[in-house]
Amino acid sequence: MRVGFIARNDDEGDIRFGVENGLYDLEYNYHMEFDVSFPERERLRGWLERYGARVSAVGCWGQDFISLDVKRREVSAERLRRTIEFAESIGAPVVMTGGGDREGDDLSAKLRDVIEVYKPLRDFAEEHNVRLCFYNCPWANCVTGPEAW
User: Fold this and answer.
1) pLDDT digits (tens, 9 = 90+) for 98-123
2) Residue 73 CB: number of other CB atoms within 10 A?
3) CA-to-CA distance for 108 and 124, rounded, in angstroms?
């Protein structure tokens, strides 16, 4: 088992601390409004190389993948595609995200939309050697718990 922790996106100190304490695996997370150009990518990649650390996962949290508003869906899907590209560029094998959520629909209707939305995103991730997984947290995510799984 490899043990790591969620690191701050802009801090070399977290990487150094991890390596000094045998925690070579890091996770980086991005939330609702983030800069999809990932301006810190080169700096982060340099720090990881310098310390011999790895990124086990990148999180793309709080997205609105199954909104009834098509524009919001498109924005969320684009953010996830950029996050997948970012993950590939720093060697992260996994991107964690939610399935989206919306009030007023039953779980089966929401899950049908999650499947529809994720098919092309899954294919995009595979093209970039990244796997997608769902976080098990209800924040903007209907894919939680045994009923959804």
Assistant:
1) 999 999 899 999 999 999 999 999 99
2) 18
3) 25
Give the SS3 label for residue 25.
strand
Q: pTM here? A: 0.92
Q: Provide the β-strand partners of residue 28.
A: 58
23 pLDDT higher than 90: yes
CA distances from 43 to 58, 72, 94 (A): 16, 31, 20
CA distances from 78 to 37, 42, 64, 71, 88 (A): 12, 21, 11, 11, 15
Question: Which residue type does 54 have?
Answer: R
Query: For strand 4-6 and strand 94-97, is the pairing parallel, antiparallel, or unpaired?
Result: unpaired
The rounded distance, in Å, linking the Cα atoms of 73 and 66 is 6
Which positions ≥6 away from 27 have C-beta within 8 Å? 4, 5, 6, 7, 55, 56, 57, 58, 59
- Taken as a whole, the chain contains a residue count of 149
